[in-house]
Amino acid sequence: MRDQEYLTVLTRIADALDRQCPKKTSCNDLNQADAFVWQPLTNSLDPILKVNHIALDMLQGIDLQKEILLKNTKQFADGFSANNALLWGARGTGKSSIVKAIHAKLNNDTPHSLILVEIHREDLETMPDLLKVLKQTDRRCVLYCDDLSFDGGDTSYKSLKAVLEGGIEGRPENVIFYATSNRRHLMPRDMIENERSTAIHASEAVEEKVSLSDRFGLWLGFHNMDQETYFAAIRAYVSDYGLKISEEDWKAEAIEWTVTRGGRSGRVAWQYIQDLAGRLGQKL
After folding, report:
1. pTM of the predicted model as reported, rounded to 2 decimal places
2. How far is CA 239 from CA 2, 179, 231, 245, 275, in A?
3. Domain-by-domain residue ranges, the chain?
4. For 31, phi and psi rounded to 5 degrees?
5. What is the band of 209 on the pLDDT scale with cuts at 50, 70, 90?
6. Measured distance CA(131)–CA(141) in Å, rounded
7. Fold observed for domain 35-222
8. Torsion angle (degrees, nearest 10) of CA 102, 147, 178, 24
Protein backbone atom coordinates (compact mmCIF):
# COMPACT_ATOMS: atom_id res chain seq x y z
CA MET A 1 0.00 0.00 0.00
CA ARG A 2 1.09 3.54 -0.68
CA ASP A 3 1.61 6.07 2.11
CA GLN A 4 -1.59 7.88 1.22
CA GLU A 5 -3.58 4.65 1.43
CA TYR A 6 -2.09 3.86 4.85
CA LEU A 7 -3.01 7.35 6.01
CA THR A 8 -6.60 6.97 4.80
CA VAL A 9 -7.02 3.62 6.59
CA LEU A 10 -5.49 4.94 9.82
CA THR A 11 -7.73 8.02 9.71
CA ARG A 12 -10.82 5.84 9.36
CA ILE A 13 -9.69 3.70 12.31
CA ALA A 14 -9.08 6.79 14.45
CA ASP A 15 -12.50 8.21 13.56
CA ALA A 16 -14.16 4.91 14.46
CA LEU A 17 -12.41 4.82 17.83
CA ASP A 18 -13.45 8.42 18.53
CA ARG A 19 -17.08 7.55 17.85
CA GLN A 20 -16.94 4.61 20.25
CA CYS A 21 -15.42 6.64 23.09
CA PRO A 22 -17.98 7.97 25.57
CA LYS A 23 -18.53 11.70 25.45
CA LYS A 24 -16.95 13.85 28.12
CA THR A 25 -19.74 15.13 30.33
CA SER A 26 -20.05 18.06 32.66
CA CYS A 27 -22.18 18.62 35.72
CA ASN A 28 -24.90 21.00 34.56
CA ASP A 29 -26.19 23.34 37.27
CA LEU A 30 -29.28 24.96 35.78
CA ASN A 31 -29.67 27.26 38.77
CA GLN A 32 -26.51 29.26 38.11
CA ALA A 33 -28.00 31.36 35.29
CA ASP A 34 -31.16 32.12 33.33
CA ALA A 35 -29.59 31.53 29.90
CA PHE A 36 -27.31 28.86 28.48
CA VAL A 37 -25.71 27.73 25.20
CA TRP A 38 -25.64 23.98 24.45
CA GLN A 39 -22.20 22.42 23.84
CA PRO A 40 -22.81 18.93 22.39
CA LEU A 41 -19.19 17.72 22.49
CA THR A 42 -19.25 17.73 26.29
CA ASN A 43 -23.01 17.43 26.83
CA SER A 44 -22.76 20.67 28.77
CA LEU A 45 -24.65 23.94 29.07
CA ASP A 46 -22.47 27.07 29.15
CA PRO A 47 -24.09 29.72 31.37
CA ILE A 48 -24.66 33.19 29.89
CA LEU A 49 -24.77 35.66 32.73
CA LYS A 50 -25.75 38.65 30.58
CA VAL A 51 -27.95 38.12 27.53
CA ASN A 52 -27.56 40.67 24.73
CA HIS A 53 -31.10 41.95 24.30
CA ILE A 54 -33.23 45.01 23.56
CA ALA A 55 -36.13 45.98 25.83
CA LEU A 56 -39.46 44.66 24.56
CA ASP A 57 -41.07 48.11 24.50
CA MET A 58 -38.38 49.36 22.12
CA LEU A 59 -39.24 46.84 19.40
CA GLN A 60 -41.45 48.75 16.96
CA GLY A 61 -43.82 47.60 14.22
CA ILE A 62 -44.37 44.10 15.63
CA ASP A 63 -46.98 44.79 18.31
CA LEU A 64 -49.22 41.86 17.37
CA GLN A 65 -46.29 39.43 17.30
CA LYS A 66 -45.13 40.71 20.70
CA GLU A 67 -48.60 40.28 22.20
CA ILE A 68 -49.06 36.73 20.90
CA LEU A 69 -45.59 35.44 21.77
CA LEU A 70 -45.56 37.11 25.19
CA LYS A 71 -48.91 35.53 26.07
CA ASN A 72 -47.75 32.09 24.90
CA THR A 73 -44.43 32.33 26.77
CA LYS A 74 -45.95 33.65 30.01
CA GLN A 75 -48.54 30.88 29.89
CA PHE A 76 -45.69 28.38 29.65
CA ALA A 77 -43.60 30.08 32.35
CA ASP A 78 -46.60 29.97 34.70
CA GLY A 79 -46.68 26.19 34.39
CA PHE A 80 -49.43 25.76 31.80
CA SER A 81 -49.36 24.20 28.33
CA ALA A 82 -48.25 26.33 25.37
CA ASN A 83 -47.22 25.97 21.75
CA ASN A 84 -43.89 25.66 19.96
CA ALA A 85 -43.37 28.82 17.89
CA LEU A 86 -41.87 29.45 14.45
CA LEU A 87 -40.92 33.07 13.79
CA TRP A 88 -40.39 33.49 10.06
CA GLY A 89 -39.85 36.38 7.69
CA ALA A 90 -37.45 38.97 6.34
CA ARG A 91 -33.98 39.50 7.77
CA GLY A 92 -33.52 42.04 10.54
CA THR A 93 -37.21 42.37 11.42
CA GLY A 94 -36.90 41.43 15.10
CA LYS A 95 -37.39 37.66 15.13
CA SER A 96 -34.42 36.92 17.38
CA SER A 97 -34.77 40.14 19.38
CA ILE A 98 -38.35 39.40 20.40
CA VAL A 99 -37.44 36.00 21.89
CA LYS A 100 -34.62 37.45 24.00
CA ALA A 101 -36.69 40.50 24.97
CA ILE A 102 -39.62 38.39 26.20
CA HIS A 103 -37.27 36.13 28.15
CA ALA A 104 -35.76 39.21 29.83
CA LYS A 105 -39.16 40.76 30.60
CA LEU A 106 -40.60 37.64 32.21
CA ASN A 107 -37.51 37.13 34.35
CA ASN A 108 -37.58 40.79 35.32
CA ASP A 109 -41.24 40.48 36.38
CA THR A 110 -40.69 37.12 38.12
CA PRO A 111 -36.98 36.43 38.76
CA HIS A 112 -35.65 33.06 37.57
CA SER A 113 -39.00 32.00 36.15
CA LEU A 114 -37.66 31.01 32.73
CA ILE A 115 -34.47 29.56 31.22
CA LEU A 116 -33.43 30.36 27.65
CA VAL A 117 -31.29 27.63 26.06
CA GLU A 118 -29.76 28.25 22.63
CA ILE A 119 -28.97 25.29 20.39
CA HIS A 120 -27.10 25.94 17.14
CA ARG A 121 -28.66 24.73 13.92
CA GLU A 122 -25.77 22.34 13.18
CA ASP A 123 -26.26 20.65 16.58
CA LEU A 124 -29.93 19.73 16.11
CA GLU A 125 -29.18 16.01 15.87
CA THR A 126 -27.93 16.15 19.47
CA MET A 127 -31.20 17.56 20.73
CA PRO A 128 -32.25 14.26 22.38
CA ASP A 129 -29.12 14.49 24.55
CA LEU A 130 -29.99 18.08 25.45
CA LEU A 131 -33.56 17.16 26.38
CA LYS A 132 -32.24 14.50 28.76
CA VAL A 133 -30.35 17.26 30.56
CA LEU A 134 -33.26 19.71 30.61
CA LYS A 135 -35.82 17.26 31.95
CA GLN A 136 -33.73 16.86 35.09
CA THR A 137 -34.70 20.35 36.26
CA ASP A 138 -38.05 21.67 37.45
CA ARG A 139 -37.40 25.05 35.81
CA ARG A 140 -39.29 25.97 32.65
CA CYS A 141 -37.01 26.10 29.58
CA VAL A 142 -37.38 27.79 26.19
CA LEU A 143 -35.19 25.87 23.75
CA TYR A 144 -34.24 28.33 21.03
CA CYS A 145 -32.68 27.86 17.57
CA ASP A 146 -31.85 30.94 15.50
CA ASP A 147 -31.85 30.97 11.69
CA LEU A 148 -33.28 27.46 11.31
CA SER A 149 -33.43 26.07 7.77
CA PHE A 150 -32.52 22.94 5.86
CA ASP A 151 -30.81 22.42 2.51
CA GLY A 152 -30.73 19.53 0.07
CA GLY A 153 -29.12 16.38 1.47
CA ASP A 154 -29.73 17.50 5.05
CA THR A 155 -31.69 14.87 6.97
CA SER A 156 -31.54 16.40 10.45
CA TYR A 157 -35.02 17.87 9.91
CA LYS A 158 -36.42 14.35 10.34
CA SER A 159 -35.03 14.07 13.86
CA LEU A 160 -36.43 17.52 14.64
CA LYS A 161 -39.89 16.33 13.59
CA ALA A 162 -39.79 13.48 16.09
CA VAL A 163 -38.60 15.72 18.91
CA LEU A 164 -41.21 18.43 18.31
CA GLU A 165 -44.11 16.02 18.16
CA GLY A 166 -44.63 12.40 17.27
CA GLY A 167 -41.73 10.63 18.97
CA ILE A 168 -42.40 7.96 21.58
CA GLU A 169 -41.00 10.05 24.41
CA GLY A 170 -41.71 13.53 23.04
CA ARG A 171 -40.62 16.76 24.65
CA PRO A 172 -40.29 17.04 28.43
CA GLU A 173 -43.19 18.94 29.95
CA ASN A 174 -40.88 21.75 31.08
CA VAL A 175 -39.47 22.45 27.58
CA ILE A 176 -40.86 24.45 24.67
CA PHE A 177 -39.16 25.06 21.30
CA TYR A 178 -38.87 28.43 19.53
CA ALA A 179 -37.14 28.85 16.16
CA THR A 180 -36.51 31.74 13.78
CA SER A 181 -36.18 31.31 10.03
CA ASN A 182 -36.23 33.25 6.78
CA ARG A 183 -38.31 30.41 5.28
CA ARG A 184 -41.91 29.77 6.22
CA HIS A 185 -41.63 26.01 5.60
CA LEU A 186 -37.95 25.80 6.66
CA MET A 187 -36.97 23.92 3.48
CA PRO A 188 -36.13 25.42 0.05
CA ARG A 189 -38.57 24.88 -2.80
CA ASP A 190 -36.35 22.37 -4.63
CA MET A 191 -36.16 20.22 -1.49
CA ILE A 192 -39.95 20.34 -1.14
CA GLU A 193 -40.35 19.41 -4.81
CA ASN A 194 -38.05 16.44 -4.32
CA GLU A 195 -40.21 15.26 -1.41
CA ARG A 196 -43.26 15.63 -3.68
CA SER A 197 -41.71 13.62 -6.52
CA THR A 198 -40.98 10.65 -4.24
CA ALA A 199 -44.41 10.58 -2.58
CA ILE A 200 -46.69 7.65 -3.32
CA HIS A 201 -49.86 9.74 -3.27
CA ALA A 202 -50.40 13.39 -4.16
CA SER A 203 -51.96 14.07 -0.76
CA GLU A 204 -48.79 12.80 0.90
CA ALA A 205 -46.77 15.37 -1.03
CA VAL A 206 -48.91 18.23 0.26
CA GLU A 207 -48.66 16.94 3.83
CA GLU A 208 -44.88 16.52 3.53
CA LYS A 209 -44.53 20.11 2.39
CA VAL A 210 -45.85 21.45 5.70
CA SER A 211 -45.17 18.49 7.99
CA LEU A 212 -42.18 20.09 9.69
CA SER A 213 -43.43 23.65 10.08
CA ASP A 214 -46.87 22.27 10.99
CA ARG A 215 -45.41 20.97 14.24
CA PHE A 216 -45.16 24.56 15.43
CA GLY A 217 -48.47 25.61 16.98
CA LEU A 218 -47.63 29.28 16.42
CA TRP A 219 -46.54 30.77 13.09
CA LEU A 220 -45.61 34.44 13.42
CA GLY A 221 -44.71 36.35 10.26
CA PHE A 222 -42.29 39.30 10.27
CA HIS A 223 -42.10 41.77 7.39
CA ASN A 224 -40.09 44.84 6.40
CA MET A 225 -41.10 48.17 7.96
CA ASP A 226 -42.84 51.04 6.29
CA GLN A 227 -41.20 54.44 6.68
CA GLU A 228 -43.36 55.63 9.60
CA THR A 229 -42.63 52.49 11.62
CA TYR A 230 -38.93 52.83 10.80
CA PHE A 231 -39.02 56.42 12.08
CA ALA A 232 -40.91 55.30 15.20
CA ALA A 233 -38.17 52.77 15.99
CA ILE A 234 -35.42 55.37 15.63
CA ARG A 235 -37.42 57.95 17.61
CA ALA A 236 -37.75 55.44 20.49
CA TYR A 237 -33.99 54.78 20.48
CA VAL A 238 -33.11 58.50 20.34
CA SER A 239 -35.43 59.25 23.25
CA ASP A 240 -34.42 56.25 25.37
CA TYR A 241 -30.68 56.88 25.01
CA GLY A 242 -30.97 60.68 25.16
CA LEU A 243 -29.12 61.24 21.88
CA LYS A 244 -28.51 64.92 21.25
CA ILE A 245 -29.85 65.46 17.74
CA SER A 246 -32.93 67.15 16.30
CA GLU A 247 -35.67 65.05 14.71
CA GLU A 248 -35.24 66.93 11.43
CA ASP A 249 -31.55 65.97 11.30
CA TRP A 250 -31.90 62.33 12.24
CA LYS A 251 -34.80 61.81 9.81
CA ALA A 252 -32.68 63.05 6.90
CA GLU A 253 -29.78 60.82 7.96
CA ALA A 254 -32.05 57.82 8.55
CA ILE A 255 -33.50 58.05 5.05
CA GLU A 256 -30.01 58.20 3.56
CA TRP A 257 -29.02 55.22 5.74
CA THR A 258 -31.82 53.06 4.27
CA VAL A 259 -30.60 53.82 0.75
CA THR A 260 -27.15 52.46 1.56
CA ARG A 261 -28.66 49.38 3.26
CA GLY A 262 -31.28 48.61 0.61
CA GLY A 263 -34.34 48.61 2.86
CA ARG A 264 -35.94 49.35 6.22
CA SER A 265 -35.97 47.03 9.21
CA GLY A 266 -35.43 47.02 12.94
CA ARG A 267 -31.85 45.92 12.40
CA VAL A 268 -31.19 48.78 9.98
CA ALA A 269 -32.65 51.23 12.53
CA TRP A 270 -30.41 49.88 15.29
CA GLN A 271 -27.33 50.01 13.05
CA TYR A 272 -28.08 53.67 12.30
CA ILE A 273 -28.44 54.41 16.03
CA GLN A 274 -25.06 52.79 16.77
CA ASP A 275 -23.43 54.89 14.07
CA LEU A 276 -25.18 58.04 15.28
CA ALA A 277 -24.22 57.51 18.93
CA GLY A 278 -20.58 56.94 17.95
CA ARG A 279 -20.47 60.14 15.90
CA LEU A 280 -22.08 62.09 18.74
CA GLY A 281 -19.60 60.65 21.22
CA GLN A 282 -22.37 59.19 23.37
CA LYS A 283 -22.38 55.68 24.82
CA LEU A 284 -25.40 53.43 24.46
Report:
1. 0.79
2. 71, 31, 12, 10, 16
3. 35-222, 227-280
4. -100, 0
5. very low
6. 10
7. Rossmann fold (3.40.50)
8. -110
